[in-house]
Give the backbone structure.
Amino acid sequence: MGDEESHAKSQEESPGETHDETGLDLARSVARGLAGRTPAAGGRGLGRAPGRGRRRPVVEPRVSGARPDDRDPQTLDTSMTRFVADQGWASELRVHGVFARWEAIVGREVGQHVRPESLADGRLVVRTDSTAWATQMKLLAPDVVRRLNEVLGEETVRVIDPVGPRAPSWTRGRLRVKGRGPRDTYG
């Protein structure tokens, strides 16, 4: 058998696999394999060498120098102070700090009978445990306003509004008598 006969015999055995001596069959199979995988326009094409094309911007490393910087590790106190300032909570925290230290600011005797409830628009509402202390608080108001403004800042508290104790409700319950009910100095 000659070369031509063996070639013809191999083609008969595998009719789908013919070999092209010029190499075009290899190029076609590679092209079929890459079909659909080509990047979109503007991306890296198949024909370009790696590293060419659009350049990435040079980003300088974010490291601190020899002097203190915002990028350096910070203490918890510094971080919390910055966070509170960014959120705008400074005045609210001062007010709640005063509420927590109420007895130390106004004095032990007043602090035992009078509790702050709210501060809005310069009006501090305080709850007293009797109407006598509500009256006393009206008399002490200018001095307490001055002390509070020393701690909180000028014009934070302009008016103190004392409120007497909450009266118990006599209108609820199974056994109830119609009428005004018992009266006392509840405010």
